[in-house]
Give the backbone structure.
Amino acid sequence: MQVFDDTPCQLGEGPMWHPERGELFWFDILGKRMFSRGAQRREWEFDEHVSACGWVDRDTLLMASASGLWRFDIPTGDRELVTALEADNPVTRSNDGRADPQGGFWIGTMGLDAEPYAGAIYRLYKGELRRLFDRITISNAISFAPDGTRAHFADTFSQQIQSVELDDEGWPAGEPQVFVDLKPEGLNPDGAVIDADGNLWNAQWGVGRVACYGPDGTFLRAVDVPVSQSSCPAFGGPDATTLFVTTAAVGLDEAEGGKTFYGPAGVAGQREHRVIL
């Protein structure tokens, strides 16, 4: 993989390719910054942690922060609160998030110091923010099957990626089941995305790779990332065949730690789903 952007992020996360703008957005959670790069490069600073986003229209994002979900105006940088997100809990912040095929937005929280079981996973849909799963230590790997019938997520602390069936409106319709158990290999699942064929691509923290698993959880292959702390992948580019990967520099002494990388995926990803507000 090659360097897409050489800004060192303490905790790079949440890459999202905006299909109407042809632009990648991503975050440095610990640096309280959001970046974008397309025809031009931009950067925004905030007074709280920000971590993930989905696209609403050409000029609008739904952005997750430690205190809420916000309507963010790209041209002006203005933001308007859509709904609070654990705003009364000083222990937690937002972490991994992604839009689902039905137009909802899933967002996970976690403790600022990864306090055990302090986090949860929520879904915003048609104006309703509902908590789906609680007792999460490090929320990650939120991703969706192309047909919208299944969601995946992980608690990195558990070293397992879960799968849950969804109903027609995108709400969980059963109990989560283990999709991939990484405990035997000692691997830690971070962010994930699912391609157009239903394969799940999971960044694995500490080993510098994005691993690809088939719809049945079978390991297919892995893409090496030049930095050990690979954090989250995203598909983008005009035909969604470019794989972008954020990384983290925190706690490392690596020359390219925290930079954002890209390379050919060899497959097509899903177009990022639009958030319907």
Summary: The two ends are 36 Å apart (CA to CA). The longest strand covers residues 128-136. The chain is about 0% helix and 55% strand.
